[in-house]
Amino acid sequence: MRYRLAQDGDLPACLDLLDNNGRCVLSPRVREHLPQLWADWLAQDRRYPKSFVVWEDLRTPHGPRLEAIGTSHFVRDEVHDALMRTPQPYLMDRLYGMVLDGHQPFLDQREIARANAGEGLSLLMTLYLQREHDLTHPDSQRLMPLGPAAWYFCHAGFNVRRLLGEVYGRPSGAYMTAGGFRLAHVFDAAEGLPPDSEPHQHVLDRSDQPPGALHPLSLWLLHPRAPALSLPASLQTVVIHALQGETDRAIAHRLGISADAVKQAWRGILKTMSAHMPDLCRDTTNATADGSPPVRGSEHRRIVIEYLRQHMEELRPWSDPTRGVRRAASPAAPRPR
Fold first, then answer.
1. Beta-bridge mates of residue 201
2. What end-to-end distance do the CA atoms of the chain give, in Å?
3. How far is CA 171 from the centre of its chain?
4. Which of 144, 155, 134, 129 is nearest to 70 (CA)?
5. pLDDT confidence of residue 225
6. What is the DSSP track for 50-88?
7. What per-residue string of b and e applies to 32-41 under the rule 16 or more CB within 10 Å gives b?
8. Cβ count near 295 (within 10 Å)
9. 70 near 53, Cβ under 8 Å?
10. Which DSSP category does 127 fall into?
11. Model confidence over 299-323: pLDDT tens digits?
């Protein structure tokens, strides 16, 4: 079992899981447009990974089988306020309905960076569904450790000040509450749905987890550390995909850039890290000149990946990317092919 960021080719299976699970109710209009809404979201500036995660079982005889899907969005503060002011079930339907009505509830990358460097972000967890809804099922038990891991991968290091999310059924609601989220609303399930389909909405804000609290949600999300490296978005994205185990060739294909551009990105990352942390990651381009032992590129990459896996704040936008605020000088970004 593993998690990874969704790709265009995953959308048919994601839609099948959504329909077969049957607990996230969508209006006919939203369901009709959902494939295009998701495709458009994934196609937006591919330098910025999207919080659209799939979990898959790799042990099945006919190839990987989709086990769960999850999505989240950073939204405008007024959208979060409206959803809290007039609580209703089925957050994804409400949010995508706004899009179809011509509104723009989501923050763009510039706005995310600005809010991340300021008072913080409003996060909406719009969807989490499993193929096996029963949390006691063996497949669900295998998924459980990967849920927090995927959460950390997608959200740790962002400066989030409040969060609203929805899950379905009493066991899932209890699981969220046990994890530190505060139950806000429980709604009756729509008529004709499977058992344990009641929408449970949970909230979290900084008052729930004060600074210094020894809780992952406080340390990773509500009170994150500021980044030290100031990596530009183009370099951050290469590392994020490498953290999923993707090869340079796969990263180049996903981002639509050349393999040489990916190598150039790794050189830029190494140069930045060696400038800030020479004892951790020394640039040994001229190693023979100062007597330092030569270090292979693969070892450099391993050092970089392991450090940044522990410091996800380095892979999040912390300023307006068009202005270079709080950004140190860095090597040129890879260019599209």
1. 166, 185
2. 34
3. 24
4. 129
5. 83
6. -SEEEEEES-STTS-EEEEEEEEEEE-HHHHHHHHHS--
7. ebbeebbeeb
8. 16
9. yes
10. E
11. 778 888 888 888 888 988 876 444 4
In this prediction, residues 121-142 reach a mean pLDDT of 95
Q: Write the pLDDT tens digit of every residue in 256-275.
A: 899 999 999 998 998 888 88
CA-only gyration radius of the chain, Å? 21
Torsion of CA 119, 209, 239, 285, to 10 degrees: 90
Alpha helices in the chain (DSSP H): 11-21, 28-43, 77-85, 91-100, 109-117, 138-143, 146-155, 170-178, 216-217, 233-242, 248-255, 259-276, 287-290, 297-309
Partners of 165 in the beta sheet?
125, 202
Return the pLDDT at 216. 75
Neighbours of 315 (CB within 10 A): 24
258-to-13, 250, 252 alpha-carbon distances in Å:
29, 10, 6
Query: Which structure tokens are listed for 283?
Result: 């640039």
Q: What is the residue type of 42? A: L
**Residue 135: count of CB within 10 angstroms of its CB:** 16
Tell me the average pLDDT across 202-214: 81
Hey, how many other C-beta atoms are within 10 angstroms of the C-beta on 47?
20
Report d(CA 240, CA 232) in Å as an integer: 13
Mean pLDDT of the chain: 86
For residue 257, the cross-strand partners are: 336
Sheet of strand 2-5, all strands in order from the earlier edge strand to the far edge: 2-5, 52-57, 65-75, 121-130, 160-168, 199-205, 182-186
Tokens (6 digits) for 177: 């509450």
